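Technical annex, item 7. During the second reporting period the consortium partners agreed on a shared format for inverse folding records so that results from different sites could be compared directly. Each record opens with the tokenized structure and is followed by the designed sequence. A conforming record, contributed by the partner at site C, is shown below for reference.
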């Protein structure tokens, strides 16, 4: 699957994300869409995390991702998004705590 297909599958899931976000009780929406690759054998899944401000973090994965690992990844990404603006003196080579 080339990059254009990746973008198309992810973009196609946005309508479902908007629909699910209105009724969701958790920012992690899980797998919201599936697609079959051009070879007909590969399954692609789109997992989503929506922040309270409405920012959508989306991951396109081959196969079914492990739920706990996916949720942990999104939670860590969200925490980093919250920490970066508060790092006034930030050196690019240092880790963000």
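Designed sequence (site C submission):
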């Amino acid at each position: 699957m080339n990059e254009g297909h990746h973008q198309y599958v992810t973009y196609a899931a946005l309508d479902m994300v908007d629909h699910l976000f209105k009724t969701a009780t958790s920012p992690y929406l899980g797998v919201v869409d599936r697609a079959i690759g051009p070879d007909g054998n590969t399954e692609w899944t789109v997992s989503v995390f929506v922040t309270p401000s409405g920012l959508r973090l989306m991951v396109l994965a081959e196969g079914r991702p492990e739920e706990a690992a996916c949720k942990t990844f999104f939670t860590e990404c969200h925490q980093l998004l919250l920490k970066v603006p508060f790092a006034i003196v930030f050196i690019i080579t240092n880790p963000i705590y």
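Residues 67-83 form the longest helix (17 residues). The chain has three helices and three strands. All partners now use this format for quarterly exchanges.
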